[in-house]
Amino acid sequence: MDFEFVAAQQLPGVPAGHRAARLHGHTFQLRVRWRGAIDPDRDWLIDPADMCARVENVLAAVDHHYLNDLPGLENPSTENLARYLKDRLAAVLAGGLVTVELWENQDVGCLAS
Questions:
Q1: Which domains can be identified in the chain, with CATH numbers?
Q2: 96 and 36 in contact (C-beta within 8 Å)?
Q3: What angle do CA 12, 14, 16 make, to 5 degrees?
Q4: What is the dihedral of CA 88, 79, 76, 97, to 10 degrees?
């Protein structure tokens, strides 16, 4: 499933004068994949509406927020943000393997699995 959210950030670990050191924002593109056991009563992995609701609940914590203020995201690089989201999604999509693909723009993205 694909999702989109908007957030602001500054990267503290970059050299002085680097454009990512300044306050800026992205419209992030998120792709979530979940692999697990098929529910024998329903013959599916998860109700897509249920999965969507769970992901949206996790995204509510980052959407339209300043990422640096969130515990665990003091350095909100795309890699750290992908791992942050993967960990939280794994907790709400228990029983399966969660893979997160996160893009901050069409050229910069990463995979957390």
A1: 2-112 (3.30.479.10)
A2: yes
A3: 95
A4: 0
Q: What residues of the chain score a pLDDT lower than 50?
A: none
Q: Which structure tokens are listed for 23?
A: 């306050």
- Amino acid at the residue 32: V
Q: pTM score, two decimals?
A: 0.92
User: Which pLDDT score is estimated for 96?
Assistant: 79
pLDDT at 95: 74
Q: What are phi and psi of 75, to 5 degrees?
A: -120, 85
Under 8 Å CB-to-CB from 113, ≥6 apart: which residues? 86, 97, 98, 99, 100
| Residue pointed to by tokens 């665990």 | 72
Residue 30 is predicted with a pLDDT of 98
User: What are the DSSP calls for 49-77, one per residue?
Assistant: HHHHHHHHHHHTTTTTEEGGGSTT-SS--
The span from the CA of 98 to the CA of 64, in Å, is 24
pLDDT at 33: 93
